[in-house]
Amino acid sequence: MRVLQFLRSRIAVVVAALLLCGALAWGYSLDGDIESAWGELAVPTQPITFGDLKAVTGCIDCVIAGLDPYVEANHCYPMGGRFNLPRAWLWLRYMGVNGDTADATGVIYMLLLLAAFLLIFRTKTWFGGIAAVLGILSPPVLLGMERGNGDVLIFSLLVIALSATMRLAPGPRRYVVGGFLAFLTAMKIYPAVAAAAIVRTRKDVGPAALIAVVGVAALLLTSWSVLGEVYRNTPTVNWFAFGNINIFVAMIGLDWISAPDSLETLHVVVDLVTIAVIVNAAILALYLRSRRSGFFPRLDPDNRCDVVAVAALAVFCFVFCLGSSYNYRLLYLLAPLAALVKAHDEAKHPAAKPAIIVLLAFLWLSGQWLYWPIYGFALFYEPLDWLVFIGAGSWLFVTLWDRVVPQGGRARAATP
């Protein structure tokens, strides 16, 4: 009975899963292979299913054979190139992950993602349900699934870990969450900033910062000797991607930045612009909040969905500022979308519906690179990228501000 009650409130996730399975079955019946089935859903496919995951399992097989995947390009990487992930990914071999189990591991990735969606999405209205279905079936999510990308695993584990520790006392919870974030940061650097999720009051700022530092230290300790190779082996992306640099590349063209000095200069300019935007967005967010205290939906530190949303907002903003990332990393915006759906369905917050519409438009437009002239589409799409970043950053900033700055301090600050 309790299971049926749980699934009834998660009906949107169940519907999305059934639609995806049905669409893949239909595509498979047309073309006879799963990659073509993904292609029927307008997902830019690779020659092999779960290509990103099989890049990892291929390199694991090379390690088992005594080869160095950071150097041996032809033997390890199924589609060319060299391994571009920290060493922690190669430890998956101790859990039985290798070339023989790659497809099964890819299915496990998808099941973990389904579990994560079941934990964060809870809908009570038609609008909320449709928004959840559209978010789950959006191009970035499908791209991550098709590739078997590591971000699917990290996002899913982050959601499950934060959800599983909600009932722990604050003290033990810090240690458990901190240890888990350190493990995830050893795999990719950006889960370190998800420590923002444990901030409830000013007293939590220090522990959150310590968790982030420990996570980065775990990455450095486990992968220091190969970080140079990881950086060199990682391709620079600008299409099918988001980030602060992409709009500038679209405006000036790739030819101008092909020279190393030009690219370095562009990064400096972009970083300065990003800092200026962050400062002004923070000032504007505080102004809007002072004029209307409920302008931004409240993220409750005792609510599972809202806690995950804070972590995901921090990750998205951090990744955006790093430059250019493939669109499957937009998967992290599904947690803020779930929080917005909750704010719409339960609190009837006036800003939730327009925010949901903008976010869904951004997620779905991210999959349109195949159908538009690249530069023209980038000049249309990338400003929306920045708009979502400003909105996400402002929401995160105000949420943490309200938790860290005492009520009395805010009242005195507002008194002339």
Tell me the major beta sheet.
Answer: 2 strands, antiparallel
- What form results from the Cα inertia axes? globular
Q: What is the helix content?
A: 55-70%
How confident overall, as mean pLDDT? 86
Could you give the distance between the termini? 57 Å
Please trace the helix and strand order, writing H or E for each element. Answer: HHHHHHHHHHHHEHHHEHHHH
- What is the domain tally? 1
Query: Which blocks of ≥5 consecutive residues have pLDDT under 50?
Result: 408-416
User: What integer value in Å does the Rg equal?
Assistant: 21 Å
> What is the number of helical segments per DSSP (H or I, 4+ residues)?
19
- SS-based structural class? mainly alpha
Order of strands, main sheet, comes to 1-2
Number of strands: 2
Strand content: under 5%
Written description of the protein model:
- By secondary structure, the protein is mainly alpha-helical.
- The chain has one domain (2-414).
- Helices cover 66% and strands 1% of the residues.
- The chain has helices at residues 2-9, 11-31, 34-40, 51-64, 73-76, 102-120, 126-136, 139-147, 150-164, 170-185, 205-223, 227-233, 246-252, 260-291, 304-322, 334-345, 352-365, 374-404, 407-414; strands spanning 241-242, 325-326.
- The chain has a two-stranded antiparallel sheet.
